[in-house]
Amino acid sequence: MKYSIDHKSPIPLHIQAEELLRKLISQDEYQNGRLLPNEVELAKLLAISRTTLRQAINKLVYEGLLVRKKRAGTKVNQSTVSSKSNNWLSFSQEMKLRGINIKNFELHVTWVFPDETLANFFEIKTDKKVLKMERVRGRNDGPFVYFISYFHPRIGLTGDEDFKRPLYELLEQDYSTIASLSKEEISAHAADALIAEKLQIKVNEPVLFRKRFVFDQGERPIEYNLGYYKADSFVYTVESRR
Amino acid sequence: MKYSIDHKSPIPLHIQAEELLRKLISQDEYQNGRLLPNEVELAKLLAISRTTLRQAINKLVYEGLLVRKKRAGTKVNQSTVSSKSNNWLSFSQEMKLRGINIKNFELHVTWVFPDETLANFFEIKTDKKVLKMERVRGRNDGPFVYFISYFHPRIGLTGDEDFKRPLYELLEQDYSTIASLSKEEISAHAADALIAEKLQIKVNEPVLFRKRFVFDQGERPIEYNLGYYKADSFVYTVESRR
DNA sequence: TTTGTTTATATGTTTGTACATTATAAACCA
DNA sequence: TGGTTTATAATGTACAAACATATAAACAAA
Predict the structure, then answer these.
(1) Is the same domain home to A111 and A54?
(2) Closest among B149, B114, B116 to B128, alpha carbons compared
(3) Taking CB atoms and an 8 Å limit, are A240 and B86 in contact across chains?
(4) Strand C positions within 7 A of protein Cβ atoms
(5) What's the Cα-to-Cα distance from B66 to each of A85, B37, B57, B168, rounded to whole Å?
(6) B185 and B155 share a domain?
């Protein structure tokens, strides 16, 4: 096993430490209930200061992956993580699982300049084009979702890919880009003219709006996804435990 | 205005600082898009070290209440009300955290016979009455959520409780009932006459609908909760990792 | 006007140091 | 044996001091 923290890397030490801990935990180095070495020890092992190490541990504690206890040490707590990770199927896989056959109504791919928000999320300039994918999907009885996806140039997509394949499979297998973290925001809106047309509903009818920010393992942004779901055709479920 | 941090208090300084910041933000000292004083300044003002202050700020940043930007400063981000899936705070606590003062517009408590669905979830007969609580809550500028809650008879609520207290605190402290698991379903709907009236919007305007099933530690059902949120005033956020 | 360069100023990173708090194991005593 | 005290080993809190890095704004050059 290698405790590889590169002091000359531009990546901050506490980020490296965080990643390393995640890796160790996921690779059964420290499985479920195990204790980590104590902070002073571990800091020495990684050749970083205790403060820096704590910065890394803190983040994992906040996420619930680690649990600290005085005198007892810091424990791995993988139980909660598993319950959250069920929403990681791609859309079509998820639908198939529910016994719904998905049809692509539209599928456009273009290169566009990012707006302020997007450039900010991708951490790029607004004059650098990004790949935009639009797609309308649904069942035989009509469309029920309108997706807009933007992909980070870093990934290397050309626009000629077969987007009918499950997206995250494509990214993983052909571009070794692994979607590892997603932050989603869900809200309700009234359909504007565009959305109404795409979903074949009336203007101002309610839609469920899902904004999704997807990151790779290094927490670098890879996809920005907007989804407009026809009301009553989509339910978002969340299960949480404390 | 008082920047009151008590160095002799047993409460850690960074916790005090965190609380103080929350208070300042909620009390319009630093409203919405405002910048905080810079870290060095603020640390001097509070008479704590920059490191300690950062500890406090970091927490608020993690919650999304503050946004840092190099060179620009640290900004208050109260824009949308959001709910974190992991977070087990009650509604009003969560809102207070976001610096929003919650007002109760309506609060009714009655005993009703459960319908089929509810009886099924509670695993009781339909001739056994359950406690129903309705409440409309919002800010000064109007209501933004209409809640309906049903409580399992097992808990022992009489209906005379002080429902202005945080709900889960009440259940925990007075009825030793600990909410431990929740399953939620989120969807978009058009407001019907009742919802429209409660939220002071027009019929057919979009609302975010959240259905919540709450269980205790033994996975026994304790609460069934329906929430109708005015569109654009509520964003549900989910973070998931694989 | 545009483009490049500098500079001031904010947050970001990292270390070293010191002492406080607390859960628990070990030692002690009744 | 069983309870109580004490020591210890872990995390928790706090500060000071550098240096790194990003960027807005001012300025200079093309």
Answers:
(1) no
(2) B114
(3) yes
(4) 8-17, 21-24
(5) 27, 13, 8, 26
(6) yes
Scanning chain A, the segments in alpha helix (DSSP H) are: 13-26, 39-46, 50-63, 79-84, 91-97, 116-122, 167-175, 193-199
Which among B53, B76, B99 is the end of a domain?
B76
Q: How many Cβ atoms are within 10 Å of B43's Cβ, its own excluded? A: 18
Last residue of a domain, one of A51, A83, A115: A83
By C1' distance from the Cα of A40, the closest nucleotide is D10
Q: Which residue has the tokens 């919405």?
A: B32
Q: What percent of chain A has pLDDT over 70?
A: 78
**Which are the contacts of A98, defined by CB distance < 8 A and separation ≥ 6?**
none
Domain that holds residue B49: 13-76
Alpha carbon A152 to its chain's center: 13
**Position with higher pLDDT, A41 vs B133:** B133
> Is position B139 within any domain?
yes
Same domain for B23 and B41, yes or no, is yes
Q: Give the CATH number, domain containing residue B27.
A: 1.10.10.10
Express each pLDDT in B165-193 by its tens digit.
888 878 877 887 777 777 788 889 999 99
- Within this chain, do residues B50 and B129 fall inside the same structural domain, yes or no? no
* pLDDT score, position A81: 34
Strand C: protein residues, Cβ closer than 7 A: A 7, 12-15, 47-52, 55, 69-72; B 10, 36, 38-40, 51, 54, 68-74
| Rounded distance between C-alpha atoms, residue A193 and residue B59, angstroms | 41
* Tens digits of residue pLDDT in A24-62: 776 666 765 666 788 888 888 888 888 888 888 888 776
Q: CA-nearest residue of chain B to A235? A: B187
Q: What is the pLDDT of residues B13-57, one digit of tens each?
A: 888 888 888 778 777 667 666 677 888 888 888 888 888 898 888
Assess B183–A contact: CB distance below 8 Å, yes or no: yes
| pLDDT value at B109 more than 50 | yes
pLDDT at B46: 85
Are residues B111 and B167 both part of a single domain?
A: yes
Give mean pLDDT, residues B111-132.
Answer: 89
Q: Which residue of B has its CA nearest to A236?
A: B186
Q: What angle do CA A141, A143, A147 make, to 5 degrees?
A: 160
